[in-house]
Specification:
- The complex is a heterodimer of chains A (about 150) and B (about 850).
- Chain A has about 150 residues and is mostly helical.
- Chain A has a single domain, classed as Alpha Horseshoe (Serine Threonine Protein Phosphatase 5, Tetratricopeptide repeat).
- Chain A has six helices and two strands.
- A two-stranded antiparallel sheet of chain A has the order 1-2.
- In chain A, helix 4 runs parallel beside helix 6 and helix 5 packs antiparallel against helix 6.
- With about 850 residues, chain B is α/β, with parallel strands linked by helices.
- Chain B folds into four domains: about 325 residues, TIM Barrel (Alpha-Beta Barrel), CATH 3.20.20; about 90 residues, Immunoglobulin-like (Sandwich), CATH 2.60.40.10; about 240 residues, TIM Barrel (Alpha-Beta Barrel), CATH 3.20.20; about 100 residues, Immunoglobulin-like.
- Chain B has 21 helices and 40 strands.
- Chain B has an eight-stranded parallel β-barrel, surrounded by five helices. In chain B, strands 24-25-26-27-28-29-30-31 form an eight-stranded parallel barrel, surrounded by four helices. In chain B, strands 13-20-19-15-16 form a five-stranded mixed sheet.
- In chain B, helix 3 links the parallel strand 1 and strand 2.
- In chain B, helix 5 packs parallel to helix 6 and helix 16 packs parallel to helix 17.
- Classes of the chains: A mainly alpha (about 150), B alpha/beta (about 850).
């Protein structure tokens, strides 16, 4: 009995360690969390990706909203990076929307896309191809696409 | 080295008695290089000390001398004041001109009017006699640009001979001071050389870089006398290039500053060893006229850049903290009606608030005195760097000056020209306009602040448009209200008639040449021919009741460059202004292939007459409004072509075949784009979906919203839903399910595949399937240019049923192919999809 308990205890600890390993938040910066969310999403590990996006929102949503409130136009050039929280949280929410779409959770997808459009409208995301794209524009497009799909089906 | 230079150097180092009295002397008695300014300040009742104060400033600027043009009652006092400041004076002795010239004062005939010549002679000699002993006298400036302003060769010769008599008479009274006469450029020099040998120094008025080449010209003319640059300054109106309205372009304040501050050294001082004994910068004056704005050191008591530049030239001292100078001013439109609102912008248009600016008009027509007047006009600031001002009521070409106080004591000015023209009377065109129909007036209401609204016949009009010339009936019943064409031709009257019959408005395209097709915007002949074609089209169709606006050109700026060619945009602007002069009832739109910052900047700068910017955009058309705002476009815009991502914007197969979106995805693109575009109700006037018809471009199904056989596709249904919120009465089939094992694969020739594409019809209509295989298109073009349909591969696919099942047997010949399916409901709707594959 005691041996079994010890074994179960060890397995629980290993599981917890594996989970910690899977949820490696790195330096906890918004940039790291967003990069890890993209990576997990790309590998189809949607639950892990959602863990990173949730952590990013938890830590930086408040700052992102402050940064959004300070803007009345899209920042340009190097100035774009000054709005790091806004950019990363906006991107994380867009990733969440993409995941919910793939999980056929359309209601949830529409909700997070709406947050990006309405509350993080000046967020931007650097594309390795060499330009910034705008999560709010992409989210608005997805909302309309989902609306259209619902009309067709 | 010219002989005269040796003489001059000797003269300056060991000045002859002739020069000893007046010429500035160095410690060894050598002649000193004159650093002078021309001077026109007079004492007034309000300021009896004006001259004295001004001369103190002249001295402080580092000048050693001033120049005047004539002797008056105040000349003795002026000499006293100058002497008090240690300044020398080149005393002007005015000689009348023989005809109206720049000074507008002459009709003396030097050939025959002996009495007036004698009177003038007496006056000059009296002046010399009364002043020559004054210690401030530097020399005598006898006549100014007289030969330029005398008509007839014989009179010029007579004047030069008369001048010689005067010089000799002056020297008889005053053998000490040099006698100088003044020429516009070197025009008088040949006459002086031949008929006026007693002149000591040649005075040459020369502005800008011309001053630097005086020695070359004198050498060419064999001159062996020293010269003084008697007037120098920034490039003058007579040397300036003219703008499109024929108005000489005034150098910017920055250019003026540069030309004086560095030109003095480069063009005058550097020629000291080649006969130049100094110069006078024009002009230490304080006036309030166009000439004053161009050249004076002061205007209305405020210093102009010429003041600071001259001080820097003479002393090397720069302005503390620099001075803010206005840059280029842009007017829109540049051809306007009397009393119309003119928009005035300042480069850079997106910069900081400029603060207070005053505006004045100066006419470029009428008598000289009238042309030299300035008419203030109130400006209303509507943005940081944008104002609105009213145009003058009197037709003609004007300069509009923008004047701003810069710092505590300086003034900066910029200018642009505008033509005020009476509206051309409307000419009815009964040939085109159906009898009894009213001519509509289309206009844009609003502004950048409140947003723009297109108004047709007094009612708001949002463009629910399509690009094409067919299926107007389908457009009208599905919520569309406008079409767009790309050019006029023999079919245009019939097209307008059909559109009008369906209540459809037309943006009539006026085709402009593309350089990639061989058109050259620098070829005057081609440009003139194109202008004639545009003019003829506008005159022919301007009164048609279906006309909504003019579509001036389509992607003529180029699609594989930045699209910022000044030559092209200036021509577009010319044409836009021409159209507006012919037709006040319809706005002018130009159409570009997407936008980038350089393109938008070029359009704003060179084509301000454009009312609406039409943008052809495919992927992301709904985001163009944001891009335009970011690039500083503040006028209204329309999306003139939108639809799917083009073949150039999508992923390709390994064999470089573009992957076409499915018919369902395409419908989604149209829905999203249409809704997204129309959400911008502030600046966007509407949009035209592309293409309301069918077209072979990459494939037969990519861009066409209709099948080649005329059936509408789900894209038409999607756009109808976006426009109206309702589906059309009859719906097109929608793709539901596919099984295409060879899709995007390399397969063997002669291999068989079961394929499936199942469609649903919301109305329950019976669907008919047609399958075919075609070679991948090899006739690919850019910019929507006409492409040939690829070859059909016969008997490659067999339809198995009307449920979407078929059997594909791949062609034996190696190459790229596509499998197409066309589905029709038999009631005017259909659908087409394709799947590329490759036979190894």
């Amino acid at each position: 009995m005691k041996k079994w308990m010890i074994l179960i205890g060890c397995m629980t600890m290993m599981g917890a360690m594996l989970q910690v390993s899977a949820q490696d938040f790195g330096d906890f910066s918004s940039q790291t969390l967003t990069g890890k969310a993209w990576e997990a999403y790309g590998k189809g590990n949607f639950e892990l990706a959602l863990t990173y996006t949730a952590k990013c929102k938890e830590m930086y949503m408040s700052e992102a909203l402050k940064q959004e409130a300070s803007l009345d136009a899209f920042p340009v050039g190097e100035g774009t990076h000054e709005y790091w929280a806004l950019n990363d949280v906006g991107t994380c929410l867009f990733i969440e929307g993409q995941i919910y779409e793939k999980q056929k959770n359309i209601t949830q997808a529409l909700e997070v896309y709406a947050v990006v459009v309405n509350q993080l409208s000046f967020s931007q995301c650097w594309d390795e191809k060499g330009w910034f794209w705008k999560p709010a524009e992409a989210s608005a497009g997805r909302i309309k696409q989902l609306e259209f799909d619902s009309l067709l089906d | 080295m010219r002989i005269f230079t040796v003489i001059l150097v000797m003269g300056l180092c060991c000045p002859p008695a002739l020069w000893a009295g007046g010429w500035p002397q160095g410690p060894e008695g050598e002649g000193v290089f004159v650093k002078g300014v021309t001077f026109t300040i007079q004492d007034t009742a309000q300021n009896p000390q004006a001259q004295l104060e001004a001369l103190a400033e002249v001295k402080a600027m580092g000048a050693t001398a001033i120049r005047t043009w004539g002797v008056g009652e105040d000349t003795p006092a002026l000499l006293d004041h100058a002497h008090a400041q240690g300044l020398k004076v080149l005393v002007g002795l005015w000689l009348e001109h023989g005809r109206d010239g720049a000074e507008n004062d002459g009709d003396l005939n030097y050939l025959s009017d002996d009495a007036r010549k004698s009177q003038q002679r007496e006056k000059v000699l009296q002046s010399v006699a009364s002043l020559h002993e004054h210690p401030a006298v530097l020399g005598w400036g006898l006549g100014n640009e007289v030969i330029l302003n005398i008509g007839g060769e014989d009179q010029k010769v007579a004047y030069a001979q008369y001048l010689e008599e005067l010089v000799q008479a002056i020297k008889a009274i005053d053998p000490v001071h040099p006698v100088i006469s003044v020429s516009a450029w070197t025009l008088s020099v040949p006459y002086w050389q031949k008929y006026t040998p007693s002149l000591d120094v040649y005075g040459i008025n020369a502005y800008g870089a011309a001053a630097g080449v005086i020695p070359d010209d004198l050498e060419r003319l064999g001159v062996q006398k020293p010269y003084l640059v008697t007037e120098f300054g920034p490039r003058g109106a007579w040397d300036s290039p003219k703008d499109d309205l024929g108005v000489p372009q005034m150098p910017s304040d920055a250019e003026k500053y540069q030309q004086i501050s560095t030109g003095w050294g480069e063009w005058i001082v550097s020629n000291r060893g080649r006969g130049c004994v100094g110069g006078f910068v024009f002009n230490f004056g304080n006036d309030d006229s166009p000439t004053s704005l161009w050249l004076d050191f002061y205007v209305k008591g405020l210093k102009r850049p010429a003041y600071w530049a001259t001080r820097e030239a003479f002393t090397g001292q720069k302005v503390d903290g620099g001075i803010e100078l206005l840059e280029e001013m842009l007017l829109s439109p540049s051809l306007v009606s009397p009393g119309q609102i003119l928009t005035v912008g300042f480069e850079p248009l997106t910069g900081d608030d400029l603060g207070e600016i005053a505006f004045v008009y100066s006419p470029e027509f009428g008598e000289r005195a009238y042309r030299n007047r300035m008419f203030p006009v109130q400006g209303k600031q509507v943005q940081n760097r944008v104002w609105k001002v009213l145009t003058p009521v009197k037709p003609g070409v004007y300069r509009l000056y923008a004047i701003q106080k810069s710092g505590e004591e300086s003034m900066t000015v910029t200018q642009a020209s505008v033509e005020v023209k009476e509206r051309e009377p409307m000419v009815e065109m009964p040939v085109v306009a159906p009898s009894g129909s009213a001519v509509p007036t289309v206009m844009i209401q609003g502004d950048e602040q409140v947003g723009y609204q297109l108004m047709k016949e007094g009612k708001p009009f949002v463009i629910h448009g399509a690009g094409g010339s067919e299926h107007f009936d389908v457009l009208a019943v599905n919520g569309g209200n406008a079409v767009r064409t790309w050019g006029v031709g023999p079919d245009t009257p019939e097209l307008l008639k059909r559109a009008h019959a369906q209540g459809i408005s037309v943006t009539l395209g006026l085709w402009l040449g593309h350089e990639r097709h061989g058109f050259n915007y620098s070829d005057a002949k081609q440009v003139a021919e194109q202008r004639r074609e545009v003019e003829a089209a506008v005159k022919k169709y301007r009164n048609h009741p279906a006309l909504l606006s003019w579509g001036l050109g389509n992607e003529m700026e180029g699609i594989q460059n930045r699209g910022d060619s000044p030559v092209i945009w200036k021509e577009v602007n010319y044409l836009a202004e021409m159209i507006k002069s012919l037709d006040k009832n319809h706005p002018v739109m130009t159409v570009v292939a997407n936008v980038n910052p350089d393109k938008v900047t070029a359009i704003k700068r060179y084509a301000p007459a454009i009312d609406i910017l039409g943008v052809n955009a495919y992927a992301g058309a709904q985001n163009i409004g944001n891009n335009l705002k970011n690039y500083g476009w503040t006028k209204p815009y329309a999306i003139t072509e939108y639809g799917l991502p083009g073949p150039w914007e999508v992923e390709h197969t390994d064999w470089d075949a573009p992957l076409e979106p499915t018919s369902r995805e395409k419908a989604g693109f149209y829905y999203i784009a249409t809704k997204g575009i129309l959400e911008d109700t502030h600046q966007c006037l509407g949009a035209y979906a592309f293409i309301w018809g069918s077209k072979q471009e990459a494939t037969a199904s990519w861009f066409g919203m209709f099948l080649p056989s005329g059936e509408k596709t789900p894209r038409v249904d999607a756009i109808t839903r976006a426009w109206t919120g309702e589906w059309p009465e009859n719906r097109a089939p929608v793709l539901k399910e596919t099984e295409m094992p060879m899709f995007n694969q390399k397969v063997r020739g002669g291999e068989s595949f079961s394929v499936k594409a199942r469609y649903e019809d919301a109305d329950g209509d019976r669907l008919r399937y047609h399958w075919e295989v075609r070679e991948e298109s090899r006739d690919r073009k850019v910019g929507g240019d006409q492409e040939a349909a690829p070859e059909l591969v016969k008997n490659a696919v067999k339809k198995l049923d009307d449920e979407g099942n078929a059997l594909l047997k791949t062609p034996k010949r190696s190459g790229a192919y596509r499998l197409f399916v066309t589905v029709k409901d038999g009631k005017g709707s259909g659908c087409m999809d394709n799947w590329p594959f490759y036979v190894r």
